């Protein structure tokens, strides 16, 4: 017969075994990636025994990608079931148009409207931007809408250009691409364009200059001659210098009337230095002396004397022929 003490021991052992098995069947706190998180209720639980469930939701800045997907998982045999909930970045949507401007998004495409994307404002040419880049946050686009304001230019100083003036009175402010036209005083001519425009930078182009119509009188070297333009010399006149014979030029041979005056100083004519050339002595021709003539070999040719012919004489009325030769 089993005693009461033995029964009690068996009961206690069974209870302990059941508790041990129950501990083994519990699950740890589940996690399925940073964009899917436990609900506050499930996150506050300290234990997840066999058969218990845990509920998930999308993290801040993310939304459900598959409507109707299950948000709960179950602890079975110490392991969690698969979570079918899928989450994606929330979209901030496109920003409204900026008058005389636009937004560009980074990254490009659909990603440029999702959480973390950046919208950069840009203005049309002739407009200046007031505003900053905007970022897609969990609450939507941050910051305020940018503004594109038309460029304005302040007028140039009224004293510019020297010896000239605007054709019309200057205004306080000029809009983008507005034009100011200039003219020069009598005796001066414009150098450059006669008008300037208000640029997109908010500054006017450089005004033209007014220069004198002519250059001063040239100082010509007394040993030089000039060709080309004659006084008075207008802008662009060309004068060419030539030195007289026996002189060489020092300086530019051609001068031009430019905005700042003559292109260079008039040249000088320097006299050439004469030099004496010494020739080598001419060889003297002399007649041979008597002694030299005596030593000269001469050749004498002796001819044989011609036969001597005597005229025939008549004796007794008979013509006789005689032939005689001189002795050798």
Automatic annotation (TrEMBL):
InterPro entries linked to this entry = ComplSys_Reg/VirEntry_Med (IPR051503), Sushi/SCR/CCP_sf (IPR035976), Sushi_SCR_CCP_dom (IPR000436)
Q: Where are the transmembrane segments?
A: none
SMART domains xref list: CCP
In the UniProt record, the signal sequence range is 1-25
Chain intervals with Low complexity compositional bias:
274-303
The residue ranges of the Sushi domain are: 25-89, 151-212, 213-271
Question: What keywords were assigned to this record?
Answer: Disulfide bond, Signal, Sushi
Pfam families in the record: Sushi
The keyword ATP-binding is assigned to this record = no
Cell compartments where the protein resides = Virion
Disordered as annotated region, ranges: 273-314
Gene3D superfamilies this protein is in? Complement Module, domain 1
Q: What is this protein called?
A: Sushi domain-containing protein
Q: What is the lineage of its organism?
A: Eukaryota, Metazoa, Chordata, Craniata, Vertebrata
